[in-house]
């Protein structure tokens, strides 16, 4: 636990100094707030009656989890590889789960704070708010694991951006396309981002099956990260 705490503190300090990472946790709820207040709640005549109060919140929240967090986690890990911090940690005997808990813990905490802001903007009822937080927390874990795995395979931050961007775009925007195309929906049904999109847009839908899919994704990503850490952690 000592190594986890040390990594957590180090990463928390680094994150507060990294504007490109911090902006990810600000811009999405900011856009959701602006669109919700200006469009969904009566800002544009004739449009608000056809748009739910939560439409832009759920849209931005889904994209935030499915796209921004992958790039965030990937960039953090790639930076550690580029600066040789990861190599030093591996040599020092820091285990994959300890490293991931330290790094991921910071991103997870920041993401939950952002999720709370999304929930407040949407003005969810208590039961919907709790369901929203559970869904966001699960999706956050999946994205951190996936982003961290991609980061392990990236030699530097530039390479990380090149690898993570297409993946994040597909997983982030794919579920939106799936709403208009049945075949795309079937393909994306095995991915956690599609299940998150379904759940945050309809809390009355059954939550059990989507959560099983999300946590199955998490299990796969966790295994992939452990393998990648052991194989690539010492390499430049």
Structure description:
This protein is an all-alpha fold and 236 residues long. The protein has one domain (2-232). 81% of the residues lie in helices and 0% in strands. It is built from eleven helices and no strands. The protein has helices at residues 2-17, 19-22, 24-40, 55-82, 85-91, 96-122, 126-152, 157-178, 182-188, 192-201, 208-232. α1 packs across α6 (96-122), α4 runs antiparallel to α10 and α7 runs parallel beside α11. The longest helix has 28 residues, at 55-82. The protein is globular. The mean pLDDT is 84.
Largest sheet: none
- Strand fraction band? under 5%
Structural class: mainly alpha
Radius of gyration: 18 Å
Low-confidence stretches: none
Notable characteristics:
0% strand, 236 residues, mainly alpha
State the gist of this model.
The chain is mainly alpha-helical and 236 residues long.
Helix-strand layout with pairing:
Blueprint: H1 2-17, H2 19-22, H3 24-40, H4 55-82, H5 85-91, H6 96-122, H7 126-152, H8 157-178, H9 182-188, H10 192-201, H11 208-232
Helix pairs in contact: 1-6, 3-4, 3-6, 4-6, 4-7, 4-8, 4-10, 6-7, 7-10, 7-11, 8-9, 8-10, 10-11
